[in-house]
Amino acid sequence: MINMKKIILISFTVLLALFIFKVFIVSSQPQGVKIAGNGLFANFVSKDFGDSFYTIEKRKFDTVDLNNYKPLGRSDNWRVTISGYIYFPQDSLYNISIWCDDGCILLIARPGEVTPLTFVGASTGWKDQPATRYPNVNFPIPFDKGYGKILIQHYQAGGLEKLQLRWNSSSAGIPDQVIPASNLFYTDETQSTI
Ligand SMILES: [Ca+2]
Q1: Residue 49 C-alpha to ligand 1 middle, in angstroms?
Q2: DSSP state at residue 19
């Protein structure tokens, strides 16, 4: 005879697992978009004088940590847009910084918000320069737990090239580090719109 108690117990367990998945996994994704994987998506374009901008390379990066990167073998005169989401593991104060050689702009929207915070503006970071950190001191900013949209613009003119996205948070237990792939996400939308 079929053990009805066992069937009911299994059914209940499956329903409970589905409920937990829906509430804690699905609802932790950014609203209205579907996460496709870890990392951020990058679109490199030429920056040659006389050229119209055209894409020379598209790829996913696990982290933002470029050193003398050469899209399509080009060491000079290119720019890149890198976008996706950054996941803040808890409500806390975070110091986020970006290093760049040459220019960079960094925008991050708070989880659930559309208007991004500007970490590096066009007037400050968008210029030919040796590797420079923005902001140049720890500048703690409160973020709620969740996914914030992130957008990085960066260009390389000539000489050395560098782009690095870092964070730390003593209250969240995060040491000073390159923001790891486990906290960066891209979506299908990210890939199709950059
Ligand atoms: Ca340079």
Answers
A1: 16
A2: H
- Do 39 and 109 fall into the same domain? yes
Tell me the residue range of the domain where 116 lies: 35-193
Q: What is the pLDDT of residues 99-125, one digit of tens each?
A: 999 999 999 999 988 889 998 987 899
What is residue 25's predicted lDDT score, i.e. its pLDDT? 46
Check whether 13 has a pLDDT greater than 70: no
CA of 101 to the centre of ligand 1 (A): 5
Is there a single domain that holds both residue 63 and residue 93? Answer: yes
Query: Which pTM does this prediction carry?
Result: 0.82
Interatomic CA distance for residues 105 and 35, integer angstroms: 24
Q: Are residues 25 and 65 in the same domain?
A: no
Query: What average pLDDT is seen over the chain?
Result: 87
Close Cβ partners of 88 (under 8 Å, ≥ 6 residues apart): 94, 111, 143, 144, 145, 146, 147, 148, 172, 183
Distance 56 CA to ligand 1 centre (A): 18
Centre of ligand 1 to C-alpha 119, Å, is 20
169 CA to centre of ligand 1 in angstroms: 30
Cα of 180 vs centre of ligand 1, distance in Å, is 24
What's the confidence (pLDDT) of residue 112?
A: 87
* CATH code of the domain containing 116: 2.60.120.1560
CA of 76 to the centre of ligand 1 (A): 8
Q: How many domains does the chain have?
A: 2
Q: Are residues 9 and 58 in the same domain?
A: no
Cα-trace Rg, the chain: 21
Residues 72 and 105 in one domain: yes
d(CA 191, CA 41): 6
26 and 122 part of one domain: no
